[in-house]
Design brief:
- The structure holds two protein chains of two kinds.
- Chain A has helices spanning 20-24, 26-36, 39-47, 50-62, 65-71, 83-113, 118-122, 128-162, 166-169, 171-196, 202-227, 237-248, 270-291.
- Chain A is mainly alpha-helical.
- The longest helix of chain A is centred in the middle third of the chain and has 35 residues, at 128-162.
- Chain B is an alpha/beta fold.
- In chain B, 38% of the residues lie in helices and 28% in strands.
- Chain B has a six-stranded mixed β-sheet, sandwiched between helices. Chain B has a four-stranded antiparallel β-sheet with strand order 2-1-4-5. A four-stranded antiparallel β-sheet of chain B has the order 12-13-11-14, sandwiched between helices.
- In chain B, strand 7 (152-156), helix 6 and strand 8 (184-189) form a beta-alpha-beta unit.
- The relative contact order of chain B is 0.13.
- The chains are: A mainly alpha, B alpha/beta.
- Chains A and B meet through helix 2, helix 6 and helix 7 of A and helix 2, helix 3, helix 4 and helix 6 of B.
Chain lengths: 299, 307
């Protein structure tokens, strides 16, 4: 590559300009490149696939009697691959993806915000929507690979081994994996970006994010105890998602409810949880919109 | 290049820019004013960071509200404070900014290298910007502002925190950009010499209002000869008398008078007038008009004393 040809004179660029889609992908591309240089990220990201790999083995064993006999496992001890199986892996993968996000999210916004870099972005033909959309895309993409993409591959692996009409009889699982994961990803990504926009250090951002989710759950329990109410559960993000996932995985393709084992009836109607998630998303978007701006307002 | 049409900006109840209207056509415009005059607010408004409360502005004929995206693709902006993206090397930072301005990936990288060499940061281009000295950070900011070849360059206090050699280098680079590549310049500064060296026109702001708008060359020629005089006695009668004879005068905050002489008048005649008026001349000095005089006069004319 010709690095430069003329030191003595700066020559302005006169050629073709890129389109909006190409420009939208610039922020994610640079973020992915920075992440690929982080060893700790690569290590944790790889570790997130341990459970799906174990499940892959389980699915294989479920369909291979010779291997079961060879390992001396009683076929009755093997789990039936169905709604409950995929529900549990979805829960595990979503929690794993959350820890990865706590590591990644602060590093997306802080390098720009801490060094007054935002005016440089917004003085260019880049809107706040494109900027935040690009940052959100990074979190959504990383979490998607860990959750619904990995789980969909497991689903198709199971469908391939089971053969026949299994894939059509269990299409509801695929929908539950996708929708359950996506709602989790969107809500947690918004929370992560909002929290990251409010701190000055990456480590503090990650810790605060974990605190917001886990301490809020404890706070919810405390509210329930002190005020003898059940509305404190609306602070418990993990509980709410547990119930939403159970609900999503509790239907078969014909719309009949399948009882998911080991689940208790939710404290509040599911509509409350959905509404709560909408409110959380709206508040996070508003805070993020206010916080991410080209200049500081000094009052 | 720049047209302000009753542009007004208000933060809460405070009016920061008061219905500014002006049209500036020259290639390099200096934005002058004391601290807090509204220079940075004006730049921020032109860039769309602050919404205008009323009125509008046009940069290169493009409306800042309606053609914001198109206008921004023609602008290069260097902010006043430290502005960079940490954790990445200078070349990746400048390349990122070039890509965001619309340059294709490979060209952006090539231009980033080229621009960093041109600004004198070639050897440091693989270092992270947070490790740069203040002068190097300023040059990196300039590099990101010009990497995409903007048609207009907005520079906000570009020589802030620079030592004299670095300041000289920065001004040389700015002059090169304006004179050799045909880029237009809007330079905001409270350093009069910076503006004097780089600009043809000056827009003077004071307390959010336009205190003056001048062409530097014309001003220098028309007010080439003037006197700074300190007198004791009836100052008002003295002023009235010299103005009767074709002089124009302005009073500084400390009581000194600045007198612009007509072509056919000498300093000795002023001395004689003072003698006739029984005014005691304590000090008299012949001076050339500088931007400082234009600036002081503009600010004084409006408010009686320099803020």
């Amino acid at each position: 590559m010709a690095v430069y040809s003329n030191h003595s004179r700066h020559q302005p660029y006169q050629g073709r300009l890129t389109g909006p889609l190409e420009r939208f992908m610039i922020i994610p591309r640079y973020a992915f490149r920075s992440l690929s240089e982080s060893k700790i990220f690569l290590l944790l990201f790889t570790a997130c696939f341990a459970v799906p790999l174990g499940c892959l083995l389980m699915i294989y064993l479920n369909h291979n009697l010779d291997a079961i006999k060879m390992l001396g496992i009683d076929p009755k001890d093997l789990n039936l691959i169905g709604n409950t199986f995929f529900l549990r892996i979805t829960e595990i993968q979503c929690i794993c993806s959350f820890f990865i996000m706590a590591l990644v999210a602060p590093g997306l916004l802080l390098p720009d915000m801490n060094n007054n870099g935002l005016p440089l972005y917004f003085s260019r033909p880049i809107t706040k929507q494109v900027y935040l959309g690009g940052k959100l895309f990074v979190l959504v993409a990383i979490q998607s690979v860990i959750t619904w993409v990995a789980l969909s591959l497991l689903f198709f692996f199971q469908a391939g081994l089971a053969g026949g009409s299994w894939i059509f009889d269990h299409a509801d699982i695929l929908w539950a994996i996708f929708s359950g994961s996506l709602v989790w990803i969107l809500i947690t990504s918004l929370i992560a970006l909002t929290v990251s926009s409010m701190v000055r250090w990456k480590a503090a951002g990650g810790a605060l994010l974990l605190g917001v989710v886990f301490i809020a759950s404890g706070m919810g329990e405390a509210i329930n105890e002190i005020f003898r109410t059940r509305y404190g559960i609306l602070f418990n993000l993990i509980y709410m998602f547990e119930k939403i996932w159970e609900w999503l995985f509790s239907f078969n393709v014909h719309g009949n409810v399948i009882v998911v084992p080991a689940s208790e009836a939710p404290y509040l109607p599911l509509t409350y949880y959905w509404l709560d998630l909408i409110v959380i998303a709206a508040v996070c978007t508003a805070l993020l919109w206010r916080k991410v701006r080209a200049f500081e307002v000094v009052k | 290049m720049l047209e302000l049409d009753n542009l007004k900006v208000q933060f809460g109840k405070q009016e920061v820019l008061k219905s500014l209207s002006v049209s500036l056509e020259s290639r390099a415009v200096g934005l002058l004013g004391p601290n807090g005059a509204g220079k940075t607010t004006l730049l921020n408004t032109l860039l769309g960071f602050n919404p205008a409360t009323a009125g509008t502005a046009r940069v290169l004929g493009l409306d800042i509200k309606q053609d914001a995206a198109r206008m921004k693709s023609l602008i290069g902006y260097m902010p006043e404070n430290d502005s960079f993206v940490s954790g990445i090397t200078a070349v990746r930072f400048v390349s990122l900014m070039a890509e965001l301005s619309g340059l294709p990936r490979e060209i952006a990288l090539e231009k980033a290298h080229e621009t960093l060499f041109w600004t004198g940061l070639g050897e440091a281009r693989y270092r992270k910007i947070e490790t740069f000295s203040q002068g190097m950070k300023q040059l990196a900011k300039l590099a990101q502002a010009i990497v995409h070849g903007p048609k207009v360059l907005f520079l906000d206090e570009p020589t802030n925190g620079l030592d004299p050699p670095a300041r000289r280098r920065m001004l040389t680079l700015i002059n090169d950009i304006v004179n050799k590549s045909g880029t237009r310049l809007l330079l905001s500064s409270h350093l009069l010499r910076d503006v004097e060296e780089c600009c043809q026109d000056v827009l003077i702001l004071n307390q959010g209002d336009i205190a003056g708008c001048h062409n530097l060359e014309e001003e220098k020629e028309s007010k080439f000869k003037f006197l700074e005089i300190e007198i004791q006695g009836d100052k008002d009668s003295f002023t009235a008398e010299i103005e009767k004879r074709g002089c124009s005068s302005a009073e500084y905050a400390d009581g000194r008078l600045k007198i612009v002489l007509p072509e056919n008048m000498s300093a000795a005649e002023i001395f004689m007038i003072a003698l006739d008026m029984d005014a005691e001349v304590r000090k008299m000095e012949m001076k050339r008009s500088t931007l400082e005089d234009i600036f002081l006069q503009a600010v004084e004319n409006r408010h009686g004393s320099v803020q």
